[in-house]
Structure formats: structure tokens, C-alpha cells
Amino acid sequence: MRNKFLSKSIDILMRRQTNILSAAFVIMATVIFSQLLALVKQRMLIGYFGATGVTGVYDVAYKLPDLLFQLVIASALSSAFIPVFSDLLTKGKDEANKMASNLLTWGLIIFFVFSVILSIFAPFFLQAFNLGGGFSQSDMMLMANLMRIIIFGQFLIIIGTFFTALLQSHNHFFIPGFALALYNLGIIIGLLLFSSSMGIYSGAVGTIIGALLFILVQLPLVKKIDFVFKPNFSLKNSGVSEIAHLMWPRTVSNAVFQAGTILIVSLVSFLPSTGRNYIIFDLAQTIAYAPVALIGQAIAQAAFPVLSRERQNLENFKITFMNSFNQMLYLVLPISILILVLRIPIVRLIFGAPKLDWPATVLTGRILAFFALSIFAQALITLVYRAFYALHDTKTPLIAGATSTIFLLTLGYVFIVPMHMGVESIAIAYTISGIAQLFFLLYFLHKATGGFSLSPLLLSWSKIIASSFFTAFALYIPIKLLDQLVFDTTHTANLFLLTGISSFAGL
Known about the structure:
- The chain is mainly α.
- The protein has 19 helices and no strands.
- The protein has helices spanning about 1-15, 20-50, 55-60, 65-90, 95-120, 120-125, 135-170, 175-200, 200-225, 240-270, 275-310, 315-340, 345-350, 360-370, 375-390, 395-415, 425-450, 455-485, 490-505.
- Helix 2 runs parallel beside helix 8, helix 12 runs parallel beside helix 18 and helix 16 (about 395-415) packs antiparallel against helix 17 (about 425-450).
- The two termini are about 40 Å apart.
- The mean pLDDT is about 85.
């Protein structure tokens, strides 16, 4: 009986998701798990090391390895692999698997070569983060050492991410999502086991543990779909050539975006207490990103294979896109309002630790408020991008992303350097540029598909916006009354009750 139950449980986990709603539900469940672990990881970092320069340096040490990962392999897997691999599967599994092996082989080789160069000359490359001179020499040395460890973890993540794209092409979403969540678990394990003996290096070691978990959990299902990696050094595979043709705009777009993140850190380096300011900024961005990942990326990932299959039938394509768009807006707007109104209690509940002082809490809440205003735009952009990718158009997202990043950096520079505003001004720049990018993308998607029927859409959107407006009042009034008249929110239990009651009223 027990073996039969175990067998059925495993079968459920291995089952394919055959429609967008079921796939989105599965992805959301795994994203919730991943985001919870990410928040636990961040809380542990703050609990062990505080909102200090050391924690900020640890965060910045991820930037260049992530840039390399995005440019070498993530661009191909996120924008071009699934459509090309899906087309090849219709012709035969062997041909599709041969192309996949060829792509992974060259991805690993190219990443390895550049990672060696990056590791050797780390102090030189990392100066890009310190244009304002806010990081000390010891900070920069620590950053270089942490980066050299993290970059090895990123090498392993290439394999795990490749497995994820492969499984999603076969409409398997649970195991890849669950495996990715375990990456954060690996960092948590590293902090628990080694923080007392290795300090902040324990987090970097945790990335390697997490990357190994990411790979190992997916291996059984990869074997089940009959994929066997066979190193292939050919430069003439037609599938890889098509991916290269489709991915280059996405690669350039990623390069611009990643350059933007580097320059954002450089802007923060013009402020005093650079490391502290950056980690506070990152804490706010982590909370704001949670609904984008939970709702935006989940629905967009689930819709992508379907949109790819329907690109020859634009009417079905538009119906699928608008259904996904409306579902996303319906879910993400109330959450944005909730985060905006309850920002301080949320920050205190998630990151509240003796080492996160009250000024840091208030600043995190203020930054989060500005981020909250554009959560809906950031979530919807993930879907619109994939709509263009499904149409085999990677140039429009490139132009939109590059223009938005340049606009963001220009605003950020004006706010920080000539106007001498604080770190929260960068969140204002993010919000303005994100909303502008969404409208730009929607306009060109409208033209590319022959136009959407706008009247029913405007009616639907107006109802969602009106409901969100009333939600804000339903949240704000209870929190003000309860905070002033009922609960002493210096105690965690009372803070939890205050947030829960207000959230329930709003929802």
C-alpha cells in the first residue's frame, strides 16, 4: 500500500501540464515556495550580518557572474530554445535532442572561458561598481573573492537551467520550479552550516550547494523524457543556428539590462554608506519582485509554449494573450495595493531582526512604496516579452528594454548626482521607466497582431482598477485605526494580527 501511494505521488509530480491554467497554477505553487525560501535566505543574511556594507558587498558580488550567465546561455533558453526545440520535436526526438546537446556543449565551453578571465581579472572588472568611490579597498577585495566562488555555482546553474527549459518544452513545470526553489535552500544550508566559521563566505558556498540541488532534482525527469547529453562540438547544427539568430537581440537586451544593474550600483556608490544603502534598496526590491515572479513569470511561462504553437493563427494567439493578460492584471493589482499600504508592517514581518534598525526599516518601506507603483507593469512586461518571442520577434523587446534602461539610468543619474536625492529616487526612476516600457510594448504588439478589440478590454480593466482603488481604502482605514487604538505593534504577534486583519479586509 505504501509503495503504491509513493508511486502515485511520484506520478503526479512527473505529470505533464497540458493547459495554461494548470501550468500557471503549478508554476505559481513552486514560485511561492521559491520566494518563501528567498525571503528566509534574506532574513538570515540580515539576522547574521545586518543591513551593513558586508551584506551589500555580498549582493553586488553576484552581478558579474549573473551578467555572464545571462549573456552566454539564459538569453538562448528564455527567448529561442523552446520555440525551436518544439518545432524539432515534431520532426523527431533524436534531432531535437542532438540540437539540445550541441547548445549545452557550446554554452558550457563559452561560459568556462569567460569565467576564467573574469576570475583572474576580478579586481579590474569590479571597479565598474565603484565609480563613486563608496566601496572601500577591503570591500572590493571581499567582493572579488566572493565573486570567484559564486561564478563556479553559476557554471553549474547553466546545466540546471538547461534542464528546466528542456522539461518546460515537454510541458513539465512542477519539477523544474521545485528544483529552482532548492537553489535558495542551498544558500540557507550554507549559512546554517558555515556562517560561524566562514562568515559571509558561507553564502557564496551555499550557491554551489544550491546549484547541485537544482541539477540533481531534475535528473530523473530528464531521464524519463529520454534526453541523454552527448557532447557535440559541431558548428553547423541548423537548430543552434536558428537559436543564435533569434537570441542575439535578447542577448543584447540582456547586456543592456545587466549593464543597467551595474550602473545602478555605481549610482549608489555616489551615496554615503554605499553598502548599507544598496542592501536596503535590494531588500525593498526583493519584496516588490515577489509578485512579479509569483504572478507575472508564472503566467508568462505557462503561456509561452501555447503562444509559440499559435503564432500561425493570430486570432487564437490574441485570445490566449488577452486571457493571460487579464488574469495577470486581476491578480497583481490588489497585491500591489496591499504592498503599498502595508509596506512598513510587511518589511518588519519579513526582515524584522535586531540588526535591522528602525531607520533602515523606514527607508526600506519608502523605497518599497515607489516600487509598488510599478509592480503591475513589471509583471505584465514578462508576458508581453514572451508574446513577441512566440512571434519570433526578439528585436522589439530589445529596443523597448534598451530604451527603458537608458531612460532609467538617465533619471537615476539626475536624481542622485545633480539633485542629491537619496537611494529611494532610483526606485522612482524604476517605476517611471517600467510603466513607459509597458505602454511602448503594448502599442507595438497591437500593431504586430493586427489590433486587439479594445472596448471589452477597457471595460474589464476599468473594473479591476476601480476594485483596486476601493481595496486601498479597505486596507488603509483598519491599519490606521488598529495601529493607533488597539495594537501595540512593537510586539511581533500584534504586528502579525494588524497586518492579517487589514489584509483580509482589503482582499
